[in-house]
Structure formats: structure tokens, C-alpha cells
Amino acid sequence: MLKETLSNNLGAKLMALVMALALWLFATGKYTGELSCTVPIEVSFSEGYMLLDQSSTAVNIKLTGPKSSIDYVSDLVGERKIIARCGVPVEGRESEEVIEEMVILDKRNFNLPSEVTLDMIRPKNIKLLLVRRETKTLTVALQKRGEPMPGYMITREFFFPFDVQVTGPANILKDATAIKTIPIDISNITPEQNRTFPWQVPLEQRVVISRNDKATAAPVECEGMINVWLDIAEELVSKNFEKVGIKLLEPPGFPYNIKLEQKSVNLKVKGPKSVLDKLAVPDVYINVSDLKPPGPYKQPLTCKLPPMVELDGKLPEIHLDITAEEVAKK
């Protein structure tokens, strides 16, 4: 009897089964959702420490669940409200300067609705490195980029404050001596910029130390700005004058005769190019006003130069003889 019941209308019964399966698949496909996305990692730890390194700052996850819940989670992901949260306990480890921790993520680390299933996390293991925070006074190092406009140079620089309080990882700060400003762009700068100083320049939020001939950088916290003054002037160049005649500086009616061992000298001067290009041969002289026989004398030379121009090197002293004029005439 049972056999006959099962065998009757077998084709219709198979068709009903196929339709029921198709309906179930349709229903589950319509009302079940899936989402693959990337979410950030948020690490919590004691205020006495700082996070120096982590193997990953975000994870890829795959979620399934009711379509309405998946759509809701998708919106939260777009607003960056779904976060992988993990913490590093430091209780009982306060004496440690460096703490390394491996965190294994699961659904408890995510703020997901309970009806949503977390099918995949990649990467699942997150390596964290905490270091003790320390505050130290470091010297400020001014950092510049570029060159002034051709023909100009920075003749003086000044900044204040000279040192600042920096907070960062203790294992790095113990070997640090300075913190740099962000690079100041001085490309094509001219004296016109002199009136714009001081410039307020922020500091780099990191320090760099050298260990075993290798540079190591670490993030730090440092508030405040550095006031910077630069003095831009024309670039100094040199100019040579050869065989410049030596003049005698003597009062009217000077009664003595002067004989110079050499009558000319070579000069080298330096100053702004625009000034040197127009500079004529300078006057070079010896002051003999206070000299009286008998000689000989060894006297310094004097050179008369315009403002912003100076000698490049020293002038030689000149040997001279002095005699009474009437004796010289005999």
C-alpha cells in the first residue's frame, strides 16, 4: 500500500520537490546578504605607553547574515563606524620599557550585530609594539630646502626657541639630541623676503637617531612653532686689481723726501657683485705725516673702499726711506 502511494504520480511529486527547492533558494537568496570590506584597527593601551609599531592598521573581513543587517553594516563601514578594537594589558608589566603583544582577532573585537556572521578575517594575527612614553628637552635643528635666487645668499639665520619639550618612546629619546623643523623652502628667495620675517615653522613630529650606522625614526609629540629669521643679501664675489699705485698721504709743505721700496701693490677685494662690477681702482696709500728722518721705516698700507666692500686678505707693509729734502737735493 505504501509502495503504491509513493509510486503514484511520481513525476508530479518530483516536480513539486524541485519547485519547493527553487522557492527555498530564491527566498534565502533574497533575504540573506554578504559583504566583503576593509575596516581599521583601533588599539587601546595605558597612557604611560605609546604604540610604536603594528603589523597592520586594517583588516579585510567577510560577513554574511540577513540582508537588512548586512545593508546596515555596509552603511556603517562607509561611515568608518565598524572598527576592529583590541587592547594591550600592561598591568603587572609597568616596569617593562618595551612590550610586544600578539593579538588574535575574532568577532568579539568587532562591533557587529549578533545576527551577522564573521566568516573571514585577514590578517587575523596582529603584532603590536608598545614603548614607554618619556618627555625630554631636545635642541631644534633648522632644516632648509632649495637655494636663494642666483646672486643672493643667506648671510645670517636666527630662530627661537632653541630647544623644545618632546614626548615620545623612551628607548628612542634616550639617544636623541635634536628635532628638526619641517624643511623651509628658500628657493629663489631675495632680500624682498627680509620684511616678511619671522616665519613660523612647525616641527617634524618625529626624531631620527643613528644606531649601528643605521638611521631609526620614531614618532613624537611636540607642540608649538619655531620663529625663524633669515638675512638675505647679495652674494659676495671677489675682484682683483693688479699693480695699484701707492700714494703718499702727507701734509702740505712736507719737508722730507720719501723713497718707497715698491711703488705698487696687488689688491683682492670682496663684496656684492653689483657693487664690484662698478668699482674703480681703489686708492692705496701710506700715511707719512708723522715720519721724520732718519729711516728706514716699515709702514702699513691703507685702502679706501666703499661700503659693503672689504679686503680679501691683508695688505703688506712697505719699506721706505725718509730724508730731509735739502739733503736729497745735494
Topology (SSEs and partners):
Layout: H1 2-7, H2 10-31, E1 32-44, E2 49-54, E3 58-66, H3 67-78, E4 84-87, E5 98-104, E6 117-122, E7 125-141, E8 144-145, E9 152-160, E10 163-169, H4 170-173, E11 178-180, E12 184-185, E13 199-202, E14 206-211, E15 214-219, E16 225-234, E17 236-249, E18 256-260, E19 264-272, H5 273-276, E20 283-287, E21 297-300, E22 302-304, E23 310-311, E24 317-324, H6 325-329
Parallel strand pairs: 1-4, 7-11, 8-12, 17-20
Antiparallel strand pairs: 1-3, 2-7, 3-6, 5-7, 7-10, 9-16, 13-16, 14-15, 17-19, 18-24, 19-23, 20-22, 21-24
Encode the helix/strand succession as letters: HHEEEHEEEEEEEHEEEEEEEEEHEEEEEH
- Give the structural class: alpha+beta
The CATH architecture category of the largest domain equals Beta Complex
Radius of gyration: 43 Å
CATH topology of the largest domain: RNA Polymerase Alpha Subunit, Chain A, domain 2
Query: Structurally, how many domains make up the residues?
Result: 3
Mean pLDDT: 89
Characterize the largest beta sheet: strand count, sense, and whether it forms a barrel.
5 strands, mixed
CATH class of the largest domain: Mainly Beta
The coarse silhouette is: elongated
Count of DSSP helices? 6
Contiguous runs where pLDDT drops below 50 for at least 5 residues: none
In percent, how helical is the residue content? 10-25%
Number of E-state strands? 24
Kindly estimate the percentage of residues that lie in beta strands according to DSSP: over 45%
Q: Gap between N and C termini, in Å?
A: 170 Å
